[in-house]
Structure formats: C-alpha cells, structure tokens
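Final report, Chapter 2: Outcomes

The project's central promise was a pipeline that accepts a single protein chain and returns its three-dimensional structure in a standardized token representation, suitable for archiving and comparison. That pipeline is now operational. To close this chapter, we reproduce one record exactly as it appears in the project archive, with the input sequence first and the structure output second.
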Amino acid sequence: MTTTPTIELKPSSAPLSDAEREAILANPGFGRHFTDHMVTIKWTEGRGWHDAELTPYAPLSMDPANMTLHYAQEIFEGLKAYRRPDGTVSLFRPESNAERFQLSARRLAMPELPVETFVAACDALVRQDIDWVPEHGGESSLYLRPFMIANEVGLGVKPANEYLFIVIASPAGAYFPGGVRPVSIWLSEDRVRAVPGGIGFAKTGGNYAASLLAQAEAAEKGCDQVAYLDAVEHKWVEELGGMNLYFVYGDRIVTPELTGSLLAGITRDSLLRLAEDLGYTAEEGRLTIDDWRRDSENGTLTEVFACGTAAVITPVGLVKSRDGEWTQSDGKPGEVTLRLRKALLDIQTGAAEDVHGWTHHLG
C-alpha cells in the first residue's frame, strides 16, 4: 500500500525581502523569477516515496552519470495558483494535473506519484510562498512547475531505481505581453512533433526538444508559433509546439481529437466543457490543413485560437506555409475566443462561480 509521506518544513532563514519581492511582482514576465522555496520527495526501489521536504530554493547537485542526462527519464507539469477577490488563494484543477503526471510517468517507466501527494506538495509550496501570489486582477498568477527526474547514477539503458520529484514556483504575468494579441503560425509540413505509439501524449521534455528546430524556423519566417501535422499522412492538424488548437465554426467549436500523439491539455478539456455552458456545441474531430485554409478563406471558419496553462487562450491571426499565407478572422480576436477566455479566467481567479468543482482552495 502506497502511503503519502509527511512534508517536513525547513523554510529559509533568509527569504527575499518584501521590497525585492514586490519589485519582481510588478513585472514578473514568465519563468524568469522563482520563489523562496521548493518541495522535494525521493523515490527508491523497494522503499517507495520518502524524505518529503520543503526547503529553500537552491541548485541541485548532480553526478555527471545521472541517468536523466543520458536517457531522458523526465516528466513535468504546469499549473497555476490565483489570488481570489477576497484575498485567499486557490489552485486550478491540480488533481487533473496529478492524474496526467501519473500517465506521463507510466509511459516513461517511472513510479507514479499518488494524486494526494502531488496536490499536498503543491499546497505546501504555495502556502509557504503565498506572498508570491500576485494580487487579484488580470491574468497574473503563481505558476507551479512540478517535475520528476531519474536520480540513479550509472550508464545502461533501463528504468532508473531512484527518482526525485520537485515542485518549484514562478510568479507569472501574461505569456504573450501586450494584451490579447493574435499570434502568427508557421505550418510545419516537413517536421513532426510526435508519432502514434510514441510519447506525444506524455508531458516530457523530449517532446518539447523535438519542437525547437521547427520553432526556430517559425521565428525565421516571422511567426510566433509552429503548428504540426500528423506524422502518418502529413495532412491532419494536430497542435502547436506547446499548446492545443481550437477551430470555431460560428456556434460550433472543434479541437483535434486525441490520437496518442497529442497532449491532453487541462485547458483544452476545460474549454470543451465550458463552451457547452456558454451555449456552444463543442466536439473533438479531425481537420486537414486544406480544410483550415479553405474554410478560413470562405468565411465558414470564423475563429481559431490556441490554449494552454501558460498562455490561457490566444487567438490566431495569421497562418504561413510554404505554399503561401492567409489571414484568420481579419487578424483580430474573435467574439467566441474572447468570451471563452473571460469565462475561464473568471473561474480561475474566483470572479465567477465554479460549477464544475475545478477550484482547489488551500486548506
């Protein structure tokens, strides 16, 4: 029977001063600054999870033969804590992130952290560093990054017998600064992000490493993001390098179905349900790149947006490919996109009632 280890609190004796912290919170950016503490939990074969601690944020000491460095046994998650109107703090759907973390661990032959342990670790860190959660308003938040790495030392291709789970946190402003600005997309027709039967559905660094070259090519084309097609027929739209896609046909919204090579985004899932609350028809389906271009040009495809924990919802305004380019929705944010974005943020920040039970309040 798996037991949840008690997290021993060993807080810093020298946290950042109030003035230094407030200066960071005034313009945090994304992923540039980190809070005073972190949570670590070890796993050892034959012993299970143990030595759960909250300690000062600090570098890791790692042997050059650590198996993560050689065989990439690594997974991670991303979720946010929000300040509510009454000053309290809540997390958005941490149990869903914990369940996906287990799915990723299973695929990477790593031990599965119990859901309650994952949530307890996030709670402990946010509770300790609660002053790092930005004030209520806008989309500022405290971004949490739970991750796990192999911690065995040695060379040899096999699952490790030791692992280290860590949670760190970073105050976050808008992922794309400058308000709700439509992004431009480069369509990658020669490179794929993942293949059926592979690790595309797992949230692991290897998938993101595989996207970096195409992302660099997108930047050379003057685009913000890269979109991938399926690996078999090279015609079905899948997802961006780090976000899921949604296509709006009037009152009907469609997102590419999960084929095993796409990440099952928490925001993606939330929007499927939230859209129906707002009176839209929401479904999973398949869309070719020819469908995208044709329907955009004839006006039946009224909006396109990308979504993810970091960016929330971001409209797509321009698509470029080797065969030309087209403008989506006159290059402006669409009504459905903005309505869904506001509805989701209102639930996350406590400005609207959460009828789905997605909000996790700190105990």
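Archive annotation: The domain at 183-349 is CATH 3.20.10.10 (D-amino Acid Aminotransferase; Chain A, domain 2).
This record, like all others produced under the grant, will remain available to the consortium after the project formally closes.
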